[in-house]
Structures are given as structure tokens and as C-alpha cells.
Prior knowledge:
Residues 23-97 form the Mur ligase N-terminal catalytic domain. By secondary structure, the chain is of the alpha/beta class.
Amino acid sequence: MQLQDVLYGVAINNLVGKTNRVISALTFDSREVQRGAVFFAVKGTLSDGHTFINQTIAAGATVIICEQTPAEINPEVTYIVVENTSVALGIMASNYYGNPSSSLKLVGITGTNGKTTIATILFKLFRSLGFHTGLISTVQNQVNDKIIPATHTTPNPLALNQLLKQMVELGCTYCFMEVSSHAMVQHRIEGLTFAGGVFSNITHDHLDFHQTFDNYIKAKKSFFDSLPKGSFALTNSDDKNGMVMLQNTRASKKTYALKQLADYKVSIIENRFSGLNLEIDHTDVFFKLVGSFNAYNLAAVYGTAMLLGQDKLQVLTLLSNLTGAEGRFEEVPNSKQIIGLVDYAHTPDAVQNVLSTIHDIRKGTEQVITVIGCGGDRDKTKRPVMAQVACDWSDKVILTSDNPRTEDPHQILAEMEVGVSPTNRRKTLTIADRKEAIKTACHLARPGDIILIAGKGHEKYQDINGVKYHFDDKEVLMEQLNLIS
Length: 485
Ligand SMILES: CC(=O)N[C@H]1[C@@H](OP(=O)(O)OP(=O)(O)OC[C@H]2O[C@@H](n3ccc(=O)[nH]c3=O)[C@H](O)[C@@H]2O)O[C@H](CO)[C@@H](O)[C@@H]1O[C@H](C)C(=O)N[C@@H](C)C(=O)N[C@H](CCC(=O)O)C(=O)O
Ligand SMILES: Nc1ncnc2c1ncn2[C@@H]1O[C@H](COP(=O)(O)OP(=O)(O)OP(=O)(O)O)[C@@H](O)[C@H]1O
């Protein structure tokens, strides 16, 4: 491929050297450079790609995309100076892989909670409707039945366009993808063509990365600002910031809600452990998903399917048979008549949602025992709040470790304990070893009780000092429930 073929749409501030040259690959990592590669010098949080330019040229890079013209110019190399290398990377990655997003109906889902659930149900729904479909999500990526492990919620532009190209080659017409706020700030979706965008909700999270809540809102909003004319922007109008997302968008503005007036209005008729009975567009339907937050997710899915021109009754019938994403309010089967639940909730809002859902549908006499931790090297402000929410909504709480990473687990637990009020102290235990914590919860439970293991969901590891040790909440809970007499 020629360099000039991938430059379409890139705003160039300065060009040194020729553009009619063959290129062998695109990369933003000096450690992956091969002969004839284009190297993108990206300014990151830990290092600045500009410092690796000479090293990449020595390794064979013949084109450098950078933000300043280097002092030292190699006459064999082409230098392209742009305002923002990450933006150029997105556009050029799209061009390099043949702009696959424009051959698909690509729908992006953003928000603090619910992205994976909404994207996964949409994927399952469109597969059941008979379409070749792609999924890009935190749990896994999928091209029809082929599963591709996920490393990020939203992959980098090269991995992303490669995935989208595979989808096009395998006949997909739809793709549902999660759009994280990190991806927006780092321009990972630059150059993609979206058919629509969906907003679930926004609550405090990722403030370690965005610094302020306002920045976090702006990052989410920038996705809707970037949607093209002719696409749709579907928002949750019950969320305080739902309508903010639509302020500057050129897309067709649509809403879903349970409380406010909306284009797609859903009402809860009944909310039980076996599922949700909802009224959608004057039709009563029973769904296998549990909890009022899933009523929002189903409203988003229904609205999206309608905006993509699908038949209402067919959609509702198929949706009523679907289950959600792995590790989201997932029940662990056991013979002890204990309701064992594993849930990915790792934000104060998600923990409150799961526990209030349990509270709404419990009979009343059973105990709710919650096992919960907070990640190391991540937003510390969440720690006391998550402990407080867990205590306020449970009969017993066991504070434990959850990916301590490079931090001391006991220090994280001490910061969580700050959120435990003197009255709640009696019902709280702190057990740093996660397996021991789950074991203790099983020993405390009586038949009929509910155990919630929060935070890890589908993830099958504990990250301790950069090493990922196998740990599966579902596996441990099942094993321990079966061991109790
Ligand atoms: C905070 C963050 O998002 N970091 C991402 C970022 O890394 P960085 O800015 O720290 O990169 P850096 O190490 O400073 O390096 C800067 C540049 O120099 C290059 N470099 C670096 C070293 C070297 O020897 N040679 C070299 O060329 C790097 O390739 C990079 O281009 O750019 C990297 C390349 O794209 C990403 O892999 C990395 O994601 C890290 C691994 C990560 O964990 N990100 C998470 C937080 C994330 O993105 N999460 C969201 C989901 C959030 C949620 O909703 O839960 C996601 O979408 O997955
Ligand atoms: N619409 C919703 N509103 C609030 N909480 C939700 C909603 N949907 C799911 N949750 C809760 O949040 C947890 C994470 O759900 P999900 O994985 O779908 O969200 P996500 O946005 O993909 O999260 P992440 O970005 O952290 O992967 C679930 O386990 C559930 O407890």
C-alpha cells in the first residue's frame, strides 16, 4: 500500500519528504516497528512517543507521524506533522483497513454502567434476527460465532479497524461496540462511521483518569458531538445528564425512559428473581433479565432495534428469550437453597443498583450477605462510598481484596472501612483473602439467604503486583457453597 492512499482526511501541518512510497504496516509502539512501517509518535501518560523516533528509524520505520518537526531530519524518511497524532492514527488506521465501519451499521454504546449488557443483548438479538453481526465489548469481541478475547473495552484504532475488517469479510452487516470514555479522550474511534450512539447513564467513576466529573461528562458527550447527520443518538432521559449528551449532536435525537416522557417508554409491571415483566409500547413482555436497571438496558436495546428498522413484535418475542452478559447478576447453581449471585458491579452506583434490586425482589426474611472490595491503583474516592453502600443495603458485609495491583490490600481495606458507620460496624468483617471471604459468606448463609459477590463478574483473575493469578468468583462460590454442610 502507498502512503498517499492512507492520508485521506488527515489535516497535515507540515510535510517533509515524499508521500508516494510503499508502507508495510502502521504502529504506535517503537517495540513493534518493522521495515517500511509508519510510526505514530503518541504522547501518552507514561512516555512520549516522540522520544522513540530515531530508534524506530534505526529499526526500519520510513514514515514518522508526529506533532513537531524533529530537529534532526533523515533524508530517507517522510515526516508528517499533525496537530494530534492520535487523531491521525484513527483516521489512517481506518483508511489502511479499507474503512470497514462504513460497510457496517455500527452502533456505539457509552455510559458508566450497562454498556456491556446493552451491547451484548443487541448482539444476541441481531444474531437471533438472522443477521451476521459483530460485538466489541469488555467481556469479549465476537464475529458471528467466533470469539476473540478482549484486552480493552474499546481497542486501539489498529486493533479496532482490524476487527471491523474481519466482520466485513465475514459478511456482518451490524456491529455493536462499547465506547469507553478513555477511548474518547485517546481518539480511539476517530475516523469511524457510526449509524448510531446510545447513552446509558453517568455516575462518578474513572476520576483517576479524567480528574473531574465535568471532564468525564465531556468525554462521553464528545461521542455524541461526533455522530454524523443521518445517524441516531439515543439517550436515557431519566438520567440527570441524559439530555446534555444530545445538546450539540447532528444525529437524530431520540430518548428512552422509565419515568420521563420518551420516544421509547418502558414500565415495570413486576420485578422478580426469575425475571422482569415490562410494558413496552403498550405490550406486556416477560424477560429473563433481573432488576430495574435491566429495564433501562432493555429499553435502550428496544429503542436501538426500532431505530435500526426492526419489527416490534419479532424483537420483543426474541428479546424475551435472551439472557444478559456473563457475570452480570448471574446466579450460581447450588443444592443448598442459597441464592448465590456474581455481579460485575464495581462502582458505588452499580453496587447500589444491584443491592436495591435484590432488596426490591427479596421476600423479606432472608439475609443479604455481600462480599466486596475495591481495586488498587484506581479511583480512591470510591472506596469508603462502596463500603457504605454495601453496608446500607446488606445484612452482613465482608470487605475483601479486588485486584490490589501495586497497592497494599490492607491499606485499600482501611480506606474502605472509613465508610463503615459505627452502627454498621457490627455487621462488617474484613478478610483480605478473597477466597476466605467467600468461604466465610457461605458459612454465614442459611437456606433462603442471598450471597452477592460483587466486583469481578466474568473476570477470572486477581491482579497482584502486575501478575494475574487465576481467580473466578463463580468457580469459588460454587465450590464453597457445595462444601458447606
Ligand atoms: C490510561 C490509558 O488508557 N493508557 C493507555 C495508553 O497508555 P499510555 O498513555 O500510558 O502510554 P505510554 O506508555 O505513556 O506510551 C505513550 C506512547 O509511547 C509508545 N511507546 C511506549 C514505550 C516504548 O518503549 N515505546 C513506545 O513507542 C506507546 O506505544 C504509546 O503509543 O495508550 C496505550 C496504547 O493505546 C493503551 O494500551 C493504554 O491502556 C492501558 C493499558 C489501560 O489499561 N487502559 C484502560 C484504563 C482503558 O483504556 N480502559 C477503558 C475502559 C474503562 C472502563 O470503562 O472500565 C478501555 O476502553 O478499555
Ligand atoms: N443500566 C444500568 N444502570 C446501572 N447499573 C447497571 C446498569 N446495567 C448494569 N448495571 C450494573 O453495572 C454492572 C456492570 O454492567 P455492564 O458490564 O453492563 O456495564 P459496563 O458499562 O460495560 O461496565 P464497564 O465499563 O465497567 O465494563 C452490572 O454488573 C450491574 O451491576
